[in-house]
Amino acid sequence: MDVDAGTFERILTRALGAGDYADAFYERRVSRSYRLQDGRIHEAGLSLTAGVGIRVVSGECSGYAYSDDLSNEALMRTAAVASLIAKNGGERRIALPPAPATPASVYEGEPQLPTDSAAYVALLMRADAAARAYDPRITAVNGFISEELQAVVVATSEGRFITDRRPLVTLAIQTVANGKQRGNGYYGDGRRAGLEFYQERTPEDIARESARIAIVNSEAVEAPAGELEVVVGSGGGGVLLHEAVGHGLEADFNRQGASLYSGRLGEKVANELVTIFDDGNLAGERGSLSIDDEGTPSRHNVLVERGVLRSYLQDHLNASLMNVASNGCGRRQSFRSMPQPRMCNTYMPAGDSTYDEIVGSVKRGVYAKSFSGGQVDISRGDFVFMVAEGYLIEDGRLAAPIRGATLIGNGPAAMTRVVMVGDDPRLASGSYTCGKGGQYVPVGVGMPTVKISHLTVGGSAVG
Prior knowledge:
Layout: H1 5-16, E1 21-37, E2 40-58, E3 61-67, H2 72-85, H3 118-134, E4 138-156, E5 161-178, E6 182-191, H4 197-200, H5 203-218, E7 221-222, E8 224-232, H6 238-246, H7 251-255, E9 276-279, E10 300-305, E11 308-309, H8 316-321, E12 330-331, E13 340-341, E14 345-347, H9 355-360, E15 364-376, E16 382-394, E17 397-403, E18 406-410, H10 411-416, E19 418-421, E20 426-427, E21 433-436, E22 439-442, E23 444-447, E24 450-458, E25 461-462
Parallel strand pairs: 7-17, 8-15, 8-25, 14-23
Antiparallel strand pairs: 1-2, 1-4, 2-3, 4-5, 5-6, 8-24, 9-10, 9-14, 10-11, 12-13, 15-16, 16-17, 16-18, 18-24, 19-24, 20-23, 21-22
Helix pairs in contact: 1-2, 3-5
C-alpha cells in the first residue's frame, strides 16, 4: 500500500457517507520473540502484520471493518462495510494534507530489528547464567524476549493526517527456588527503545532481581488475615492504582454511568494527599506514545488533584458524546480493533513522608512491595490483588516475608484511607500489559510508597 493522501481521501470519502466522523488506521508491525526454558531456546518467532482499520461514527453508533488486503479494491470494500454497519449513505468529499505530519518523538532512538537471532539468544543466555549463579537454591529459569517496531498512519475526516514509528522491547525472567518451600520469582523490564536498552539495564540485573524474589518467597511464612494497616511499595505498587482507580476513570464507563466516578467531576473522591496523573509523553516509558491510535497527540492528564476528580481518560468517540475534547487516550491493540479510552502511564507524584517514616508508623501491618495480578469490578470499585512480594511489619520494622497474601477492598474507599504518601515516586521497571474488552496494550504504572490506614488482608494465618 502506498501511504499517501489520495488513498486515504478515497477511503474516507467512501466510508463517511452521511455519518458524523470517519477515520482510517494503517499499521505495519514487525516483531521478533524468543523463549528460553531449561537453558535452551524452545520457541522463536518472527511476524509481520499489516492492515487498515476503518471506522464510521454516526451519533452513538459505530461501524468498524478492517482488511489485511491492501489493494485499492479491498480497502474500498472495507470502507463500504464500515459505512453500512453505521447505517450511512451518500458521500462527502474528504481533503487531507499532501503528506502525513510527524509528531515529536517520545521514544528512545530509532531501532532497527536485528536480522538474525544471535543478539536475542545471547541476552537470554546471560540472564539464565546470572539467575542460576545467584543462589544454589534456584532450580529453574525461564525467559522471554521480544522486540517490535510498529509504524502507523492515521487519517480522519476532520483532516488529520499523521504518522508514527513506535519501538518496544521486553525482557522477562521467571525463576523457581527451593528453600523452606517452593518459591516463584518474576521480573521483567522494557522500554520504548531497541535492544540497546539492555546495555544500560542488563539481563543480569533482571535475572538477579527475579532470583531474589524467588528466594524471598521460598522462605516466606503464611500471610496474616484480617483488617490491617497496609504499606504499598513505590514503583510496582502502582498496579493497585492502575486497576483499582485508573479503569474507573476511563470515559466509556463514565459516559454509560457504569463507574462509581460517573458524574463526579469536581467532587472530592480521595484523601487530599492523593493526586493521580496519566501521561503518554514520558520519554521511553512503556505506555508512552507520540500520538494515540486516533492521531491525537499524547499529553499529561491530571485525573485527580489533591483528592478532587478533575478529568476522565477520553478517546474521540466518548469525548464527542460528552462534549469535551479527546485528551489523547484512544488506544487499540491493532488495526483489527476499534479504539477505546485507555491508560498510558498512570502514577501518583511525590508526597512529604520518607519511606522510613511510613514503615516506622505501622505497629502491625503488611508491606506489599509488588503485585502479581488482580481483579476489579468497575461498577462497584471492588478489587482483589495478589501480592507478589510482601512482608510483615512489626513495631515499625520489616519482619518476615509472607506468601499467599491478597489485598481486598474498594478502590474509591481505599483512596480516602491514604494517610501518608512517600517522597520516593517512580515508574516501575516492568513489562506491564493492560487488558480491556479483549484488547491488550503496553502500559506504565508507578507511585511513591503509600500508607493505607486499613485494608482487608487475605491469608491463612490469623492476623
